[in-house]
Amino acid sequence: MTVEPSIILSGTDPDLPTKLPSGLQRYTGLKEMARGGSAILRSGFDRIVGRTVAIKTLLPETKNDRKERRRFLREARVTAQLQHPNTVPVYEIGNDLMYGIFFVMKRISGENFFEILKRIARKDEATVEAFPLRRRLDVVADTCQALAYAHARGVIHRDVKPENIWVGNFGEVILLDWGTAKVWGHADDNEPIRKSTLAQKPDQEDQQLTTLTGGGQRPGTPLYMSPEQVSGNRGIDERSDIFSVGVVLYEMLALREPFRGRNIDETFDNIRSKDVPPPSETAPDRQIPALADQVVMKAIQKRPGDRYQSMRDLIAAIGEIRDQEIHEPQDP
């Protein structure tokens, strides 16, 4: 868990430099936070504004690749245009002589939702107490609010998973990584996108999928893809994100991913054709409410027409589960 930096009064007093620095020269103390198949995320200090920020750049070996640049800029601009309390603000998009194209975002202290679920699975008492079922439902509902906002603006996320849900230290819930987003009316570079710019390295994709409680690396994206994504259907709509949220809900309740197979091919086959039991049958010790079972199983229907037809409908259904928990507390 990261710690929120303190405000240093002396950092608020200096005058602006005579010549404002360009590119990433205005940021000091660059420190790598995460690295993936084509991008690097760093923290840095903006010495003009006086705040800590997150900076995303392409890897040195991909920074001049036209396709990667196009996707990267699309991610930056989609993220910047989705101005919502549950999305991360983008402060700047630019080009640096050394690092290439970059975009700068708000740095939010906290951790991703998957880390929280792992600790709950390990029965960490502090985490179990801090994240009862009602709180976890709130996290998913806030994620859905960001998706509802995006859908209203013609954007499908396509990579909703616990790793991309950031839970801040002060109650913030942010849906991250719009690198695989589908913008209606735009082509997909003639290939289905199955991993984000901060996804795992390609040589990890063929490794056997590990269990949630095993603590190992996992190619998380395939576990949450909708049947239409797996089948390469380019006409996907918001109901694909609804399916992915349903898988997140299932995992949040049962602490198991419903479609996990021995490898990615088997996982895809499970997503397309396997009927899974409701969360309460998968994890009978978790005391999962019957209403939660109903909501999850509707969200992960194979046919889009059998799911919730809008993210707002799913938000309302999650709210009903939470209301039931308030009046009849049964927190696993």
Automatic annotation (TrEMBL):
<protein>
    <submittedName>
        <fullName>Serine/threonine-protein kinase PknD</fullName>
        <ecNumber>2.7.11.1</ecNumber>
    </submittedName>
</protein>
<feature type="domain" description="Protein kinase">
    <location>
        <begin position="27"/>
        <end position="332"/>
    </location>
</feature>
<dbReference type="InterPro" id="IPR011009">
    <property type="entry name" value="Kinase-like_dom_sf"/>
</dbReference>
<dbReference type="GO" id="GO:0004674">
    <property type="term" value="F:protein serine/threonine kinase activity"/>
</dbReference>
<keyword id="KW-0067">ATP-binding</keyword>
<dbReference type="Pfam" id="PF00069">
    <property type="entry name" value="Pkinase"/>
</dbReference>
<keyword id="KW-0418">Kinase</keyword>
<keyword id="KW-0808">Transferase</keyword>
<feature type="region of interest" description="Disordered">
    <location>
        <begin position="195"/>
        <end position="223"/>
    </location>
</feature>
<keyword id="KW-0547">Nucleotide-binding</keyword>
<dbReference type="GO" id="GO:0005524">
    <property type="term" value="F:ATP binding"/>
</dbReference>
<dbReference type="InterPro" id="IPR000719">
    <property type="entry name" value="Prot_kinase_dom"/>
</dbReference>
